[in-house]
Design brief:
Elements: H1 9-13, H2 31-40, E1 42-49, E2 54-59, E3 64-69, E4 76-82, E5 85-89, H3 92-99, E6 108-110, E7 118-125, E8 138-141, H4 149-156, H5 164-176, H6 180-183, E9 191-199, E10 206-209, E11 218-223, E12 227-233, E13 253-259
Antiparallel strand pairs: 1-13, 2-12, 3-11, 3-13, 4-5, 4-9, 4-12, 6-7, 7-11, 8-9, 9-10
C-alpha cells in the first residue's frame, strides 16, 4: 500500500547530489609514459577465445594486453586476478564507485580488499567515441555481474552451462589445476568488455543493447601487477537480444600481450598494496 508523500516531498527530491568518491586525489597513471613504451612494445603472446567459451592468459606487470573483436560484434566478460595470489581479484563495485558505471581510457581496474590497488590501467579504447546515448547506454560496464546458470535456472529453469560464469569457472580450473568446486569461488563480477548497457530511466532496471563493436575495435590495458586474466566470449554475442543463448550469433575474441623494450619503463614499479593498517579501531 503506497504512502502519501510528505508536504516537502519536492524539496527533498530537489536536494543536489554529492559525488561519494571524488577522484581528484586518486594516484594518476602516467599515460604519456605508457604510450611511449607501448609504441615499441613487441607482441609476445596471443590467445583466441572461442565463442561461448572462456580462456585464461597471463600478463606480467609492466606489460600491455589488448582485447580485440576479430570476426564480428562480440561481448566479453573479463576477470582479473593477481597471478601470484588469486585471493586478490578485480573489484568491480569499487571500480564503479571510483570511476562510474562504465570505464574507458585513463581509468583503472582496482583490486579487492584488503589490497585495493590498481591492477590494470586502460590505455586505449577504440569505442571511446560512443559516449552516452539517448537511452543512457554506454560501453564497457562495471555494473553487470555476468550471465550465470543460477539466475538462468531461477528465471527459466533448466541447466545452461556455457554462460560466462561457468565458462570462467572451467577456464580457471583448467589453467590452475583446480576442481570446479575449488575454482568457482574465485570467479567474480566482471568488466563487460564491449557490452553496451545502462539503467532504464523509469524503473532503474539494468538493460543491454546491441554492442557498437566491430572487427578491429579493441580495449587495451597496462598491467600494473602480474596478472592472471580470464575472458569469456559471451553466449549472447553482441547482446542485442539475450545473454545466455545457443541461438545468438557469436564470435571469438583475441587477447594479445605486448612487452615493452628494456628501459622504456625504467623506474616504473608496481603499486604496493593499500596502506590501511587493518587495525579496524582495535
Amino acid at each position: 500500500m503506497p504512502f502519501d508523500p510528505p508536504a516537502d516531498a519536492e524539496a527533498r527530491r530537489a536536494v543536489a547530489p554529492v559525488i561519494c568518491y571524488p577522484p581528484d586525489t586518486l594516484p594518476a597513471p602516467d599515460l604519456a609514459r605508457y604510450a611511449t613504451a607501448r609504441r615499441k612494445a613487441r607482441n609476445t603472446d596471443e590467445i583466441l577465445v572461442p565463442p561461448r567459451e572462456a580462456a585464461c592468459f597471463e600478463v606480467p606487470g609492466g606489460h600491455f594486453f589488448r582485447i580485440s573483436s576479430v570476426e564480428g560484434p562480440q561481448v566479453g566478460d573479463l576477470n582479473l586476478w593477481n597471478a601470484a595470489n588469486i585471493d586478490e581479484r578485480f573489484y568491480s563495485g569499487k571500480t564503479r564507485a571510483l570511476h562510474g558505471t562504465h570505464v574507458s581510457t585513463g581509468q583503472r581496474l582496482w583490486s579487492s580488499f584488503p589490497y585495493l590497488r590498481p591492477m590494470a590501467t586502460i590505455v586505449a579504447d577504440t569505442l571511446d567515441w560512443y559516449g552516452k546515448d539517448s537511452f543512457g547506454g554506454s560501453v564497457h560496464d562495471v555494473i553487470g555481474t555476468r550471465c550465470d546458470p543460477y539466475t538462468g535456472n531461477l528465471l527459466a529453469g533448466g541447466q545452461y552451462h556455457h554462460c560466462c560464469h561457468s565458462n570462467l569457472v572451467r577456464a580457471l580450473a583448467d589453467h590452475m589445476g583446480l576442481t570446479l568446486d575449488e575454482a568457482e569461488p574465485h570467479v567474480h563480477d566482471v568488466l563487460n568488455v564491449f557490452m553496451c548497457t545502462g539503467f532504464t530511466r523509469d524503473t532503474g532496471q539494468y538493460f543491454m543493447k546491441a554492442s557498437p563493436v566491430r572487427p578491429g575495435d579493441y580495449l587495451e590495458f597496462f598491467a600494473e601487477i602480474d596478472l592472471l586474466g580470464g575472458l569469456s566470449a559471451c553466449p549472447g554475442g553482441d547482446c542485442s537480444a539475450e545473454h545466455s543463448s545457443d541461438v545468438a550469433v557469436c564470435h571469438p575474441l583475441l587477447v594479445e600481450v605486448f612487452e615493452p623494450l628494456e628501459g622504456d619503463l625504467a623506474g616504473w614499479n608496481s603499486p604496493g598494496i593499500n596502506g590501511y593498517d587493518k587495525s579496524h579501531g582495535r
